[in-house]
């Protein structure tokens, strides 16, 4: 196929390699490096492979605002921590993030913002999964008429550099759910891989564990939903970011009626 002038990269003229500036110490030794156009293309491939859902495509760290009336102070801290995390990400350190807060505080926005930053400025492979969706895909693979196996679904989840697990605990816990979430988190923990998790559930022990307010009626906690063992595993795998406040969309919807 003949390429039009507009398609040919002016930096490398389509070779994919660009020459580095001449060094005075070695003027004859012209070295080349991968051209920006190839790096951009690779990052676009990584971005597509990350499976960020359409409705979160707009989420960027830069578009997360904490400059609105009544913005909770924890949001600015969370935003800063997210930006710092993306900037300082080191694949040798497997520490991830556990982002906790009520619905609409912007947990998924920050998780996706980090993902995009890691992909576009560092070329890191990332994968986004809604917890419910992931469990559904695994369960679906048991169906004999489906071609994919459980391992087809799990392999990328085990092996990706950075996994986002959105809405951890959102599936009603059963023995199978607990076993599956343990398998995923333990595998990533043992391989020192980074996991970014969001959850609407409070980081509290399961009912019946000493210290929990088991006799008082209370909302379900993260411990109830994923089991106490996995909740404490998360504390080893992740730094915790708590986001307080009300649903961002509600705040803005009511503001626009004033
Ligand atoms: N502080 C914020 N600045 C800009 N957009 C926000 C902010 N908080 C939430 N949003 C937007 O509101 C919607 C809900 O946020 P989301 O991240 O899905 O919340 P959560 O995951 O905590 O339930 C998304 O479209 C998100 O982009
Ligand atoms: Mg969310
Ligand atoms: Zn080029």
Q: Can you walk me through this structure?
A:
The protein has one domain: Rossmann fold (3-Layer(aba) Sandwich), CATH 3.40.50.300. The chain has helices spanning 36-49, 73-88, 107-122, 131-141, 150-159, 175-190, 222-226, 228-237, 248-256; strands spanning 17-19, 32-34, 96-101, 126-130, 162-166, 194-199, 238-243. It starts with 16 loop residues before the first strand and ends with a helix. It is globular, with a radius of gyration of 22 Å. It has 258 residues and is α/β, with parallel strands linked by helices. It has a five-stranded parallel sheet with strand order 4-5-6-3-7, sandwiched between helices. Helix content is 41%, strand content 13%. The protein has nine helices and seven strands; from the N terminus they run ββααβαβααβαβααβα. Residues 9, 11-12, 35, 37 line the site of zinc ion.
How would you sum up the global shape? globular
Report helical residue fraction.
40-55%
Quote the CATH topology.
Answer: Rossmann fold
How many strand elements?
Answer: 7
> How are the strands of the biggest sheet laid out side by side?
4-5-6-3-7
| Main sheet makeup | 5 strands, parallel
Q: In percent terms, what proportion of residues is strand?
A: 5-15%
**Low-confidence parts, pLDDT < 50 over ≥5 residues?**
none
Radius of gyration: 22 Å
Hetero groups bound?
adenosine-5'-diphosphate, magnesium ion, zinc ion
Category by helix and strand content: alpha/beta
Per CATH, which architecture?
A: 3-Layer(aba) Sandwich
Overall tally of domains: 1
- Which CATH class? Alpha Beta
CATH superfamily: P-loop containing nucleotide triphosphate hydrolases
Q: What is the overall pLDDT average?
A: 91
Distance between the termini: 58 Å
Order of helices and strands: EEHHEHEHHEHEHHEH
